[in-house]
Amino acid sequence: MRIRGLLVIVFSLTTVMARRRVNRAFLKMFQSEAAQSDPCHDDETDKPRQCVPDFVNAAYGVGARASSTCGSPTSRHCYSTSAQQFLKGQPKEVCEICDAENKGKHHPPEFLTDLNNPNNVTCWNSEILSPDHEDNVTLTLSLGKKYELTYISMQFCNMKPHSLAIYKSMDHGKSWQPFQYYSGSCREVWDRDHRVTISRANEQEALCLDSHLQDGAGTRVAFSTLADRPSAEDFENSPVLQDWVTATDIKVVFPAKYFKQNNIESNAISSNQSEETNQRETDHSRDYISVSDLAIGGRCKCNGHASQCKFDKYGELACDCQHNTDGRECEKCKPFHFDRPWGRATSSAANECVPCSCNLHARRCRFNMELYRLSGGISGGVCYKCRHNTAGRHCHYCKEGYFRNKDKPMTHKKACRPCNCHPVGSSGKICNQTNGQCPCKDGVTGLECNRCAKGYQQSGSPIAPCIKVPRSSFSNYARSGTSYPAAPDPGYSRPQGDARAACAHCKKVKRKVNMRKYCKQDYVVLVTLIRQTNSGNKWFKFQASIDSVFRKSGGVRRLQQQGPVDVWVKRDDLECGCPKLRARSSYLILGQDASSRRAVVINTKTVVLEWKEEWRRRMKRFQRRSSKYCPEK
After folding, report:
1. CA distance 425 to 464
2. How far, in Å, are 66, 149, 299, 561, 589 from residue 139 at the CA level?
3. Do β-strands 564-570 and 539-552 pair in parallel, antiparallel, or remain unpaired?
4. Which strand ranges, in their side-by-side order, compose the sheet holding 607-610?
5. Closest CA to 298 of 349, 239, 224
6. 3-state secondary structure string, 113-136?
7. Is the pLDDT confidence value at 398 over 60?
8. Is residue 499 domain-shared with residue 520, that is, in the same domain?
9. How far apart are CA 181 and CA 183, in angstroms?
10. Closest residue by Cα to residue 577 from 553, 602, 555
């Protein structure tokens, strides 16, 4: 019994696991289908493609506005309940009372765009107009955004009007243009010729037709926006027709003075009906408009860059734009995607917007058509405000005063290094952008023009800092391999060769200040070297100003913020580049045993770092924490 029970349990677990595997496989199948269902992307080619929203009745559920609605005062309306019976000459008359104060007997314009049921027709009715009434009756629908319309259809409950006109607006009702005219007397009513021939030169001209009054036309008036338009077969390449079918609002106008001609025109055309039926139609017709359904077929206008429209955070209907496009109709490119001109998507090309190539050094760009043409239609983006010391259309080279750092890729924020051309030894501040070589004066050499060339010696003149060594001494200098600083400015480094041994006392200092290193110092100050005032055989003296004092112990009283100070450094240390100082530059000095005078003496234990402004926040933080972490001296 126990064995049988175990077998049953094992079988049950196996069955459950198998079902789970089947369910997972079943779900994966649908997940893969969902992942490949993006209509704006072709999974086979892995490229974007044209996509359009679903075809809908844009008028459904939209609140229509009517200039005239029955019910005030109360009036009696009669109409046929069946269009088919009306065509057979057997209309069934229904008469109703229209009362605005009684909802059950009211005929509002909301009936126009609700769900149309032929077996339970609900009709909007205008007022019964008197013979001297001169105002037109209008119906207006606002679609909320731009649509590309295919047709406009109206189902009438009673006799169709003798004349009507359809207008469209592309700017939400600010201006209107004619879409289509209908009339049995086009010249008399609308001052237009009947059925004008449409060519490619006048594809946006509204036609005037009388087809709604012909035999067998029924009780529906249907207008096709692309009918009789020569470019309809090549619609996606015809901007004229794309503009023609675009609308945000639709307005239908019924001219009041031609309501009474319904009976005359309809009776004259219906020649196959009996005289008794015609008389019955005349009896049932009234001077009012009655419409049961108004349908507007089309697609939300997204220019081929979206497959759906939805409400945004402001409650407005907008396209869900793809292909890096933006706008309510995807009519422009997203910011920073201007490397190619915006274009409407077609069946052969998605025309997606492409981001500008700025090597991660710019946040804005613009499109230049001339550059786009010169590139053969490849790239037209121009980057704005290149950062990280870069320049160029694509931020692809270093700006003046900087050169390319070969250790970093061009996309790195430190791809460009400053030239640091010596102000005395160089003839300019712009160096070679490839290798960083500064333009040196005669007799000066080095990448930064900071030392005298072989056979030259220091002169002390800022105009000619290096002069030729006299011939009597040249052989000695040549044998020693000694090069001399271009000027007494301490920015020059000690020459290479046998003099390297003299710089062995210099220590490499980590260019990073932490809390421990901060607390070990008697003072931490930020100074700016102004100029060199004098020099002796063993010392250089600089006149400097104190910009900030970040730390001072009890023994350092004279170093006050915002005051002058003398900075002393040994000649041997300066020529060896420990530290490397330049006039008109700022340095962070961390030292001990400050002089009792207003002076800072730099020795081998002093830490001197060229100042970076981003360090200020860190120094302020160290200063706040010093009372807690640094012991008093």
Report:
1. 8
2. 5, 17, 21, 80, 82
3. antiparallel
4. 599-602, 564-570, 539-552, 523-535, 586-591, 607-610
5. 224
6. CCCCCCCCCCCEECCCCCCCCCCC
7. yes
8. no
9. 7
10. 602
* β-pair type (599-602, 564-570): parallel
Going by C-alpha positions, the residue among 190, 188, 206 that lies closest to residue 198 is 206
With a cut of 80, say whether residue 180 has pLDDT above it.
yes
Q: Which residue has the tokens 């939300």?
A: 300
Whether the per-residue pLDDT at 215 is higher than 80: the answer is no
Please state, in angstroms and as integers, the Cα–Cα distance from residue 135 to each residue in 110, 162, 208, 595, following that order: 22, 16, 21, 101
- Whether residue 424 is contained in a domain is answered as no
Based on the fold, state whether residues 143 and 274 are members of the same structural domain. Answer: yes
511 burial level (CB within 10 Å; 0-12, 13-18, 19+): exposed
Residues 156, 112 share a domain = yes
Q: Mind listing the pLDDT tens digit for each residue in 481-535? A: 443 343 344 444 444 444 456 676 776 666 678 888 888 888 888 888 888 776 6
Residue 614 makes CB contacts below 8 A (sequence gap 6+) with none
d(C-alpha 199, C-alpha 209), whole Å? 17
Q: What tens digit of pLDDT does each residue of 245-293 get? A: 999 999 999 987 776 554 444 444 444 444 444 444 444 445 788 898 9
Q: What is the pLDDT of residue 272?
A: 43
**275 in the same domain as 208:** yes
At residue 633 the predicted structure's pLDDT band, cuts being 50, 70 and 90, is low
CA distance readout (Å), 584 to 364, 530, 571: 35, 5, 19
How buried is 234 (Cβ within 10 angstroms: 0-12 exposed, 13-18 middle, 19+ buried)? exposed
Shared-domain flag, residues 531 and 494:
no
